[in-house]
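WARN no homologs supplied; continuing
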Amino acid sequence: MQSIYAMHQNSSDDLIKEEKFLLQSLDNIQDLYLIMLSTLTEMRQKEMDFIEKSRNKHLSTPEERNPNLKFVNNRLLQLLDNDQKFSDALENRKINNWRLNDDYILILLKAVKESDLYANYMTSSVSDFASDTQFIHDLFTQVIVPNEKLYDYLEDYKLTWVDDIPVVNTQIARQLKMLQENENFVIPQLYKDEEDKDFAIQLLRRTALNEETLAKEFEDKTPNWDTERIAEIDTIILKMAICEFQKFPSIPVKVTINEYLEIAKEYSTSKSSIFINGILDNLVKEYQTNNKLNKTGRGLM
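OK structure emitted
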């Protein structure tokens, strides 16, 4: 949707350029995932460095010589730190953001150590994998994710990440919550398979190349609306939904409608989802009557 909108705004018909940008933007989500996950291991490393320096001070205090190591010995943090696949992924994708900008890790670590979560965890007598995992999950969702300075950094680093941050953080939080002892932390793949990857390009291409034809499908379905007065985002959403109806037989109608209603709620006007739902609902009924819905498989209507 954003790609097609960008083409409209730039009066561009360079579909190849937009396809490359779309794929690059999608690929960058993997970097965002690794950057967010690595905040945990980088904070542990910073705290280990701090503890070591404090111990070696000429006039170290008894507390500095015998520090509370519960945070740096957290089982989940150690699991991530020792995970070779995680390390390989960081290296292969050249993720070194926090090595170059360690002030953000220090900001996060300070926020962590000032939190009640941290205080309660460090003084708790409970010490097992479940409690360690719960602590890291809560720390991630309640302290790290809401940090405004971190968000500002990510937004400035790549503007396309603004929409990806909630998705990535939700994925990480879910993994942290579900991880069991003796399990390896699995770095998810961006795409299920090549067909999944190809879908993004095919949807962009088939919508962009057939915009006039797709627009005609709903022109007479808006008797109380001048077509030119319909929000541009709404017209793009309608065209993409109709494109899925017509050209993607494996996608259930309900899935298409639900997805685009969510997009409308997020990106368009307050009444857009109601407007779009009405048009799509009427179109589906018309297509069903005229046998124009070519959906394959069970439960796709």
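Residues 112 and 248 are 47 Å apart (CA to CA).
OK
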